Amino acid sequence: MAALEDEFTLSSGVLSAGPDGLLGVEQSNKTDQFLVTDRGRTVVLYKVSDQKPLGSWSVKQGQLITCSAVCNFQTGEYVVVHDNKVLRIWNNEDVNLDKVFKATLSAEVHKIHSVRGTEPVLLFKEGAVRGLEALLAEPQQEIEAVLSDGEVIRWTKLFMVFRHPVLIFITEKHGNYFVYVHMVNSHTLSKYTLLRGQEEKSVIQSFTASVDRKFISVMSLSSDGCVYETLIPVYPTDPEENQRVVSSLLLRAVVSGSAPSGVALTVLDRDHVAVLGSPLSASKECLSVWNIKFQTLQTSKELPQGTSGQLWYYGENLLMLHGQSLTVIPYKCEVSSLAGALGKLKHSHDPGIQVMPPFVNWEASQGDGLGSQHAEQPRRILRRRKIEVSSQPAVPPSKQLLTTIMKDSEKHIEMELRKFLAVKTPDFHAIVGDLVTGLLGRCQVEPSFCPRNCLVQLIQTHVLSYSLCPGLMEMAVKKTDVQLLQLCLQRFPDIPESVTCACLKIFLSIGDDSLHQAEIDMESVFDYGDSVQGDNVAAPVDVLQNGFSPEGDTCLSCCQEVPAKPQDAAAATPTCPVTPQRAALLNAILHSGYSEAFLLPHLKDIPAQHITILDWICLLLDANFTVVVMIPEAKRLLISLYKFVKSQISVYSELNKIEVSFRELQKLNQEKNNRGLYSIEVLELF
Amino acid sequence: MGEFKVHRVRFFNYVPSGIRCVAYNNQSNRLAVSRTDGTVEIYNLSANYFQEKFFPGHESRATEALCWTEGQRLFSAGLNGEIVEYDLQALNVKYAMDAFGGPIWSMTASPSGSQLLVGCEDGSVKLFQITPDKIQFERNFDRQKSRILSLSWHPSGTHIAAGSIDYISVFDVKSGSAIHKMIVDRQYMGVSKRKCIVWGVAFLSDGTVISVDSAGKVQFWDSATGTLVKSHPIANADVLSIAVADQEDSFVVGTAEGTVFHFQLVSVTSNSSEKQWVRTKPFQHHTHDVRTVAHSPTALISGGTDTHLVIRPLMEKVEVKNYDAALRKITFPHRCLISCSKKRQLLLFQFAHHLELWRLGSTVATGKNGDILPLSKNADHLLHLKTKGPENIICSCISSCGSWIAYSTASRFFLYRLNYEHDNISLKRVSKMPAFLRSALQILFSEDSKKLFVASNQGSLHVIQLLEGSFKHLHAFQPQSGTVEAMCLLAVSPDGNWLAASGTSAGVHVYNVKQLKLHCTVPAYNFPVTALAIAPNTNNLVIAHSDQQVFEYSIPDKQYTEWSRAVQKQGFHHLWLQRDTPITHIGFHSKRPMHILLHDAYMFCIIDKSLPLPNDKTLLYNPLPPTSESDVVRRRTAHAFKISKIYKPLLFMELLDEGTLVAVERPLDDIIAQLPPPIKKKKFGT
Fold it and tell me: Which residue from A267, B142, B355, B413 lies 20 to 30 Å from B10 (Cα-Cα)?
C-alpha cells in the first residue's frame, strides 16, 4: 500500500522563500542531499536525514539566480546560472560564489538539467540544447533559436533512455501546447502538437512525466482538476514532420482547479501519482496519493499552512514548501500481498508509518529526549534553551505538575500541562505515563473531575502506549468517549484484542446524535462534500466521482470504484447504514493492529442489528477485489484463469469418471481372479 | 525349466497388528516399532530396512510409548502401568517395573538420555533415573487433573511440555511445578467438541511448543508467555502424532485420515532471515489412523492402524538418488510364519495366539501353463491349536513327516506328537520339557524327524533326540565365550550331519551334528542374514543377506563354491539388488540338485546353476512366455534366474516334490477387509 509517512521540516532560516516558492530542488550526488535554490540569491545544500543545511552559497548583491543549481554527477561540482547568462561552477570547498569559475554565455538559459549517468544539459530559452562540456569549450558559441516567437517553455525534464539522455520540453503559444523531444547525443528534435479534447478550454497547470521503454508518458493537471495522459514515442517515426499527440483522461477531478497557489502533480511510480492542491470541497491544501490503476485515493495529508504549488520527488522523498518551511514527506509503497490484505502480516505493513516505534524505546529516550521524530525539533531546542535560561525551577517541572494534577482545577492543569509539553525533558516517556496515571487516579477519586483535554494532549504526544496506562482506555470505554477511544486506537501500538472489540461494540452501538456531538477525527474518511457530513444519505448527484468509467457513469461502477473510503460508498449507495463519523471510528478499528483469529471470537457476541454493518464492511472488502478484476489489465488474467478453472473442473470430472471406471474394472478383475481360497494351478517357468 | 503344479493357498488368515509407536535411534540408525499386540520390532535402516529383531507381544502389554535412551537402550511403557526395558542382545524383556500411576500414556527420555519421564492416567508425571542396569523412581511433578497423553522435553533439559485433555502444561524440571497452562480451543470449524485431546507435543529449543490435538489443529505456543502464536487447522479428524527433526527445521504430523503432513521452517521471502513454519507436503500413504510418526535425518516414518510401516525418504535430504530414495512400505514380517511337512503335504500356520494345521488338496488332472486344475480333494483344516496364557507365539515348526509340532512363547516351550489314523488325527503333548527349554527363538526338525534343534534366547543351541512320545537331550552348543547373542535362523542339512545357525550380526556358524562340535564359521558379512538353507547331496550352505546378496558356501570344503565366486565376480543383476523385501525362505529338492528356490514377498525365483548368469543388459524378468521366438533366441536369452511374480504378496513357498510347489499368498485386500473402515475422504473434490 502506498503511504505517506510523517513529515519533517528542513530548517529554512537561510532560504528566502517568496510567495512564488522556490526556484528549484535538485538532487545532489549523495542520495540524502538536495540542492535548494530560492528565487533570490541563495543555494543551500541540505542533508535530509540530519534536517540541516551542509552548505550555503550566495551570489553578489544585485545578481539574481535564474536557474536552479544542479549537481554535475560526473564531477561532483555544482552548476548554477545567474542573470540568465552567467554560468558558475563550484564545489563544496568553495565559500564565495563570486570567486568560482565563471563563464558568460551568448544566450539566456532556461534550465540546467542533470541526471545520473550523463553530463548536465542546458536548455536555452529559445529552445536550443547544449551539453555542459561543449558549452564550456566555447562559451560564446552561437545558440540557435528553435522556438517561434511568443512560444514559451512551460515545463521540461531530462530522462535517460537506454543510457542516452533525452530532453523533453513543453511549450505554449496562444493556448496551444507543443511537445519537443530532443535526443541530446544525436541532436534529433521531434515536435508534437498536443491535441486536447473537450478540456481545450482549461489551462494546464502542472506537468509530470515518466518514461517507459518506448514511450514517454506525459501527465498534465488541468485547471478543471483532472489528470490527462499523453503518450509520446521516444523514437519518432519521422522526426521532420510535425506530429500530433492526443491526451486522454486519466483521473477525474482530483483537485479543485482554482487553488490560490496553484497545483502540482508528480509521478511516484508506475501506479501512483502525487497531487498537491486543495480537494474539491475543502479549502485546506492537501498532498494526496492516487492510484491511477484503481483510480482510488490511497492516502492524503493536509497541509494547513498552504503551499507554493510546487512539488519535487526524489528517491523516496516528496519535497514541498509548507508555509515558509521546506517540508519533506517520505513516501513508501510496499508491495501488497494477499496475506497482507487478510491481516496475516499484521505488523509488516511499513512500521515506519508510525511516528513512534511500536514500543517505547527507553534507551533512546534517556539520551536526548525524543530523538529525531519531530519535525520542528531544531526550533524546539532553541526554544527550550530560552525557557531553561529564563526559569530554572528548583523543583523539577514534572513533580510540580504532578502536584498540580492532584490539587488544582482542570483549567490550571491544562495550562501547566501545555507549558510542560512545550519543553521536552529527558525522561519524557516516564513522566507522561505518570501524568496520565495521576490524572486517572484523580478521576477515580473525584467523579466530577474530567481532564479530557489534558488526556487528549497527552495522547497526542505519541509516547503513550496501552501498557503504559491501561486504565485510560478502560475509563474511555466506561464513559463511551469515542473521541478518546479513536485517538487511542490511532496512537497506541499495543491494544489487546478484547479492548479493540469493546471499542468496536461501542462504535457500533452508540447513537448517531451522540456521534454528531463528538469531535471525531475525520481524516481517515477524507471528505468530499459537507453535505454528506450533515446527512448520511446524500444525493449522489452532488458527489463527484473519483475516477471515471468510459462505459458510462452507472451507479454500479461508482460503488465498485470507490471501495476503500467508506464515505464514498456512503454517498454512492443511499442505503449505507453508516454515518461518516461512525465510518471514521470503524476505520480506526480497521487500522489498529489486530488479528482476525483473536477478534472473531469476540465478534460473535455482537447483536443482530449490527450484523448489517459487518455485512456492509464485508461488501466493501469484496468490492476491493471487484475493482481489481475490473481493471483492463486483469482481463487477460481473468480469461486465462477462467479457462484454467474450467479445464480443472473438466479434468476433475474426468478423473471422477476414470476413478469409477477403475473401481468397476477392479471389481471385475477381482471376480476373475477370485479363485477361492485354494486352487491348484499349472505354472511353467521359462 | 519345466512345469509345476502349484498349490495356491490363500487361506492363511494372517492380519498384522496395527502399529502403535515408532522410535528412531540416530546413533545406530535403527527403528523400533511397537504394535498394538505388544510386539516390538527393530528395523535396521542401514541394512536395507531389514527387521532384524523382534520381541513377541503379550496380551496385557499394550505399548503406548517407546523410546531409546543413552547407550541404545530401549524402553516401552503401556496401559498396564509398567515400564519395560528390552534386552537387545538376548532378545527378551530385561525387566518390567510398575510406575504406580495407573496406565501410562506417554513416555520420553531426557535430551541427555539419562532420565525417563512418564505421563500417567492419574495425571501424574513421574521422573525416573536410568541406572546402568535398571531405572529408579526419582520424583513426581505437580499432578494434573487428567491423564498425560503426550510429553516433550526441552532440548536443554530444563523444561517439559505435557499434553493433557483440553490443555498443555509446561513444567520446570528443577522445581517440578507447572509454570504455564495453555488451554487448547475445543472448537473446530465452528463445531464445539466435547473435549480436545492433545495427542502430541514437541518442545523446540527456542521455547516454542508445537501441539497436535483431536480437533485437527497443529498449534504453536510460546512457552515463555504461555500464549498461542499460530494455529494451523489441517484435518477434519484428529491429528494423532508429531515428530520433529533434530535440526528443528522440519517436523511431521500424522492424522486420523491417514494423511501425513510435512512442515518446514522456510524463509518468508527468498533472501530474508525471518523464517516461519509452512505446511509443505501432504503424503497419503495410509488408509487409516496414523498413530505414530518419526523423523530420521533423511526420511519421514509413519505407521498406524492399517499395519503398514511407511518410510518416505525426503528427496532433498537424500544425497544419492538411487533406489534407497524410494518409498518403502513394510507390511509383512521379515521372518517365516509358515512351515511345511513335505511328506504329508501339510502346512502349519503360526498366528499370535494359535497354530493352524492344514492339509493340501490334490488333483489328478493335468493342464498347460495357467490352467486351474479341478480338485479331486480340497484342502482340509486339520487342527486349531490355541496357546495358553497371554504371551504371543515366537516360533513354530512342523516336522517333515508331519508327526511332530513344536512351538514356543517367551516363557514356555511346547512339543506335540501327532498321530494320523485315516482321516482322524490325535494330538499328544510331550510333557516334562527340561527347564533350559523355556523359550526358543527358532525351532527346526531334522529331515528324518529324529532330531529337534532349538535356538534358545541364551545363545545356546540344543540338540534333542526325538523318540516315540518322548525325547532325550543330546547336546547344547554354547555360544562362543563372551557373546550372548541369540541365534535367530537355523538350517540343517538333509543328511542331518550339519547344522547352520545365524545370529543377528555375528555371522553363520556351522556345527557338525555327528561329532557335536563347531565345524566352521562362514566369513562375516556386513549385512544381516535373512534366510539360510543347506542343499542336499552337496551340503552347500546358501545364505541370503538383507542387501539381496546370495552366497553359496561349501560346508565340507569350508569355502565359497565356484558358482558363488562366479556370481560375486559378475555381480547380481541391478534389478535383483533393487528388490525391497528380503528373501525369507530358501528351498531345495533332492532330485534337482542344481536348483535353488528363493522367495521374497513379491516374487519367487528358481536359480538354475547350470545356466549362464544374467548381466545388466539381459532381461531379468520376462513375464510373457516365448511364443514365436526361435530356439536360438531362447537359448541365447536363457539365464539362471527363473523369476515369477504371479503370486503376491507371497509369505511362503516350498518345493513339495520335483514338480509340485506350494505358494502361500496373503492378498492385501483380505487384510484391509478385516480392518475397521477408514474415514471416508473424497478423492477428487468438485
Answer: B413
- Per-residue model confidence (pLDDT) at position B405: 94
Residue of A nearest to B682 (CA): A656
Three-state SS at A521: coil
pLDDT > 90 fraction of chain A, expressed in percent and rounded = 4
Q: Are residues B246 and B109 in the same domain?
A: yes
Q: What angle do CA A633, A634, A635 make, to 5 degrees?
A: 95
All residues of chain B having their beta carbon less than 8 Å from the beta carbon of residue A677 are: 9-11, 379
* CA distances, A366 to each of A88, A352, A436, B400 (Å): 47, 21, 20, 94
> CATH code at A24?
2.130.10.10
Number of neighbouring beta carbons within 10 Å of residue B664: 25
Alpha-carbon span A659 to B685, nearest angstrom: 12
* Shared domain check, B100 and B199: yes
| Helix A580-591, helix A482-491: angle, nearest 10 | 30
Residue A467 binned pLDDT confidence (cut-offs 50, 70, 90): confident
Sequential DSSP letters for A471-500 = HHHHHHHHTT-HHHHHHHHHH-S---HHHH
Report pLDDT digits (tens) over A430-461.
778 888 888 888 888 887 777 888 888 888 87
Asked if residue B180 and residue B265 are part of one domain, the reply reads no
Q: Is A612 a member of any domain?
A: no
Report the run of H or E that residue A446 belongs to, with start and end: none
* In-domain check, residue B573: no
Statement to judge: residues B294 and B217 lie in one domain: no
Instruction: Report the SS3 class of residue B99.
Output: coil
Domain boundary among B330, B349, B376: B330
Query: What is the extent of the structural domain holding B40?
Result: 19-250
Q: Which range marks the domain in which residue A459 is found?
A: 397-516
Q: Can you tell me the mean pLDDT for A301-320?
A: 84
pLDDT at A343 over 70: no
The reply to whether B193 and B262 lie within a common domain is no
The verdict on residue A333 lying in a domain is: no
Peptide bond just before B676 cis, omega within 30 deg: no
- The residues, any chain, with a CB within 8 Å of residue A399's CB and separated by 6 or more, are none
Would residue B262 count as lying in a domain? yes
pLDDT in tens, B624-633: 666 655 555 6
B189 and B304 share one domain:
no
Give tens-digit pLDDT for A100-116.
Answer: 888 888 889 999 999 88
Q: Which helix (H) or strand (E) holds A60?
A: none
> Of the candidates B362, B372, B669, which has its C-beta nearest A679's C-beta?
B372
Nearest chain B residue to A656 by CA: give it. B684
> Which ipTM score applies to this complex?
0.85
Is the pLDDT at A544 greater than 60, yes or no?
Answer: no
Torsions phi, psi for B209 (to 5 deg) = -110, 130
The answer as to whether B498 is a domain residue is: no
CA distance A342 to chain B (A): 15
How high does pLDDT run on average in chain B? 89
Same domain? B138 vs B229: yes
Q: Is B642 on the interface with A (CB under 8 A)?
A: yes
Report, as an integer, the average pLDDT of B327-355.
93
What are the Cα distances from residue B226, in Å, to A153, A594, B480? 68, 19, 58
Is B372 domain-assigned?
no
Domain boundary among A95, A113, A146: A146
Residue A650 lies in a domain: yes
- Residue A124 domain-assigned? yes
Q: Report the half-sphere exposure of A506 (CA within 13 A, side-chain side).
A: 25
How many structural domains does chain B have? 2
Q: Give chain B positions within 8 Å (CB) of A663.
A: none
Q: How far is A490 from chain B (nearest CA, A)?
A: 24
Q: How many residues does chain B have?
A: 686
Question: Which of A148-157, A440-449, B170-179 is predicted with the least confidence, judged by mean pLDDT?
Answer: A440-449
B222-233 average pLDDT score: 91
Domain end, chosen from A467, A488, A516, is at A516
